[in-house]
Structures are given as C-alpha cells and as structure tokens.
Design goal:
Elements lengths: L1 E4 L5 E7 L3 E6 L13 H4 L3 E7 L16 H14 L5 E6 L1 H13 L4 E7 L21 H13 L1 H10 L4 H8 L3 H11 L3 H13 L3 H4 L6 E6 L7 H10 L4 E5 L6 H4 L1 H13 L3
Helix pairs in contact: 2-3, 4-5, 4-8, 5-6, 5-7
C-alpha cells in the first residue's frame, strides 16, 4: 500500500498495480480500494491501476484533517494526480466516486483526463418537485432528514436500510430475512468510524452536478444497473442525454453495483472503451 499526503496534510492510501497507461478507480461511499480488486487480472496487463481509499474510508484514521466532502475529495484527486505525475488518465467512479469526478471536473476541468467511466449515479441525490431522478426518484428533504437520523442512531443499520428499502425488491427481501451477506456488510460497517462518513453523506446529498454534465468534453462510458437499488432507467437516460456522446450500458438483472455482478463484461467493455480511437 502506497500513500501520498494531500495539501492539508491528510495521508491518503493508494494501492498501485500493473504497468501501462493510468487508470484511477474511485470507490463508493463506505467502501475502499478493495472494490476494484476483482478487475485487476484483466486491467493490469496493459494499465497501471491506482485505487485509493478516499479520506475517512478504508479504516484509516482521519485525525484532525478535513472531513471527506465532495469538494475535499476532488482536491485529493488533484493531489493524487500531482503526486504521481499523471496525465491522460482514465478515471472510473462508482457512486460516490462518480460524484467525486463531477466535483473534480467542476473545480479542475478535464485537461488531465482522457476518458471517464461513471457507474450508477445521479448528479443530484435529493428529489424535489422539479427533479425526480435522485435516489428512488422520491428521496426528498424529509427522507434525507430521516436518513440522517438513522445514521446518527445506528450508522451501520442506516446504511443497510438505505440500500434495502429502495427499488430492488430482492435486496429488501434478503435484508428482512437476515441473509448472511447483509450480516457480513453490517459487521464491516460497524468496524468503521461513522463520524467522517456521516459528514461525507451530508456533503454528497447537498451536491448538484447537473450543470457539470453538458460540459464534459472527453469520452464517457456510463454503466447502470437495470435493478439499481437507487436509480430508475430514466436517471441513466438523463445522464446519457446530458453528457455529449456518452455511451450508456444497462446491465440486466444487476443492482447499484452492476460492475460487481457482471465483472467479466465490465472489465471487457472498459478495456474496449479505453482502446477505442477517439
């Protein structure tokens, strides 16, 4: 495990594998660099992979440094590119990672990015009367307040309920049945420090990147789960319409982590996307 220091002194851990052109992979909220481990076998033959644990994630103590807000993580990404002297980067972001990339593009532009991949995310999580493409299509301010209460009362259970009581009926059934996979996730979440992760959630739900999408001027691949816990097909189609010339793939029968359910397909399509002439 390598590391670099962000410009506020925070130590950011990064796992680096393979040789070739750079791919930076940004995990989802409450996850870690391990999210991307299943794809290394196919990607590292031709690419050097940078997988960070975002600040406040991966079990690394944050100390007195700034919480992992969207803006701070975007700056951390710029610090990573500076530290490792990376340009012409393919950046892949799942969920929170996609939001981090949109914040990065708002703050720093796309000059160091060659290709982008966004996985199952909306540019605005909170819904209102004029916006129904956020979480569940109906996650309004009242539900956001309720969710924050869940997180503060029992962080692990709050995260699980957010995932379980969404659009994916199988997830709800397995949660209510106490399936072993849910218990494993519960224990992993309880091992994490909830304070920075709750602050991170507050930042993510306050963000709105709809204005960023139309200005993305590098090739973009979109991957969405047909049975996402959080987003309907209309959300994926909205993002695809807004980003110029974006390529949209819907993974049938998959949830908020479509890349994990169809790993070989995702790795193959990502490689094809990277190798396709502009």
């Amino acid at each position: 495990m390598s590391h670099f220091f962000a410009d506020d002194g925070a130590k950011i851990h990064v796992k680096i594998s393979g040789e070739g052109s750079p791919i930076v992979m940004l995990h989802g909220w409450t996850s870690s660099h391990q999210e991307w481990f299943p794809f290394l076998g196919q990607l590292t033959a031709k690419h050097r992979i940078y997988r960070w644990d975002a600040r406040g994630h991966g079990g690394h103590p944050l100390g007195k440094h700034a919480a992992p807000s969207a803006k701070r993580m975007a700056r951390d990404l710029q610090n990573l590119l500076d530290h490792y002297e990376l340009d012409k980067v393919t950046a892949v972001g799942h969920s929170m990672g996609a939001l981090t990339l949109w914040q990065y593009i708002r703050d720093f532009g796309t000059s160091r990015l060659e290709r982008l991949c966004f996985i199952d995310q909306s540019p605005k999580l909170i819904s209102d009367e004029s916006w129904q493409h956020g979480i569940y299509g109906s996650f309004d301010g009242n539900k956001a307040t309720e969710m924050m209460g869940w997180l503060k009362e029992d962080f692990a259970e709050g995260v699980l309920k957010l995932t379980a009581f969404g659009l994916n009926e199988r997830a709800r059934e397995k949660y209510l049945a106490g399936a072993s996979g849910w218990e494993k996730s519960r224990q992993a979440l309880r091992a994490q420090d909830p304070v920075p992760l709750i602050e991170c959630w507050a930042s993510l739900t306050a963000a709105d990147y709809r204005d960023v999408l139309s200005g993305i001027d590098v090739p973009s691949l979109l991957v969405y789960g047909q049975e996402s816990n959080f987003y309907r097909a209309e959300t994926a189609q909205y993002v695809a319409r807004q980003i110029p010339n974006a390529i949209l793939h819907i993974y049938e029968g998959t949830d908020h982590s479509p890349h994990q359910w169809q790993r070989e397909r995702f790795a193959r399509e990502l490689m094809e996307f990277i190798n396709c002439p502009v």
